[in-house]
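User: These chains co-purify. Model them together.
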Amino acid sequence: MPDIYTQQTRLLKSSLEGYRWFSNLWNVASSGKYKQINIEITGFMDANLSAVLGGLVTRMRSELYLDVNLIRPIGKDGSLWNVLQKNGFLESLHIDSRTRDTYGTTIPYDRYEPRFENNFMKSILTLESKQILPAMSEELKREFRKNLLEVFSNASIHSQTKYGIHVCGQHFPRQHQIEFTICDMGVGIRQHVNAKMGTGFTAAQAIVWVMDGRNTTKIGGPIPGGIGLKLLREFISHNQGKLQIISDAAYWELSNVGTRVVELPDIFPGTIVNLEIKSNAIDHKHYRLAQQVTQ
Amino acid sequence: MNQRQENTTHIIQLAEVIGLPFCVSQDDGNAIFSSIEAALDTGDRVQVSFRNVETVISAFLNAAIGQLYGRYTREFIAQHISYTETTPEIDEMIENVVTAAIDFFKSPKNATAAQDMAFD
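Assistant: Joint model of the two components:
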């Protein structure tokens, strides 16, 4: 039986295909067949996905006691490595040192313990003050910040993660776009909803249920809930951005063409929330108009 | 004595109590809820001040304010709690949280849980 498994890909995007790849990686790693997992990305990965990779590597090392390595590409394919050095991912996982981001487009990778919302908030403000986040209107900046906090808080309260909450972003200046990913390695939405509500939802049904806006799993407890995700949906719609949620064996997406849900062949061991927002003036104008209409 | 109690208004400066200009954690919300609850249980009034608060999220408000609707009636809360130095955005969030809380506690299961917590 081979002890070493190498999972390779050329390109990892914040897309259904990309998330499938991560779920498959966990599926292989948790099969009990291997002692060492090598991850080899020969081309490029959206840097915000460092949050997902960081969560997975942490859980593989801590729970499965696997030796997990990231293979350093050689020659011209080394640009991803440089980005992961700049955003602090490689340093955080004790793989390589950190280097300075001269272009200022990376949004650092970080890991937080649940209930450390105030620390996360301080980091977001630091990104704003150092102008690491792109220029956005004050309104948009505030809304973006608030919604990141809503997602973080949701992971904090519901995920039961033992392996932290991993966050990372990436600014794509040419597309006037920011991708920001928050990933926990907790129980996942399906398990959480079914345990709290006594339902027998599939992973896809569970995400649809929590994203409905009228539902909350806080039922039977003293603290009401269910507003954060509703506000998040509204924000993404107004911004004409995209919201992706991957949990257990399902992928859910909200974009300007509507929502879609896809069952995944492999289980993702936690929950990923990826926000894609438009930072440019045109979308900002739309956002403001949408806000005014709702008032 | 009774008259003094009825006239007492406790001012809770959120940024000062939390020690930060952010109202973003459920734990902080629970701490504020406990302060409000202690004052209301003696019949006093509470003024919640958002002075210097930069960011508020629903998880905080659910715990700090929404939770009150499982313990007290809407009328009692309206008579005993006021909010100051809010922005239109915060007002809207409070309104959303209160509406959701009222809905939430219409369920007997939730209302019982809130009352049970109160008497623990």
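Strands of chain A lie at 4-12, 36-45, 67-70, 106-112, 165-172, 177-184, 242-255, 258-278.
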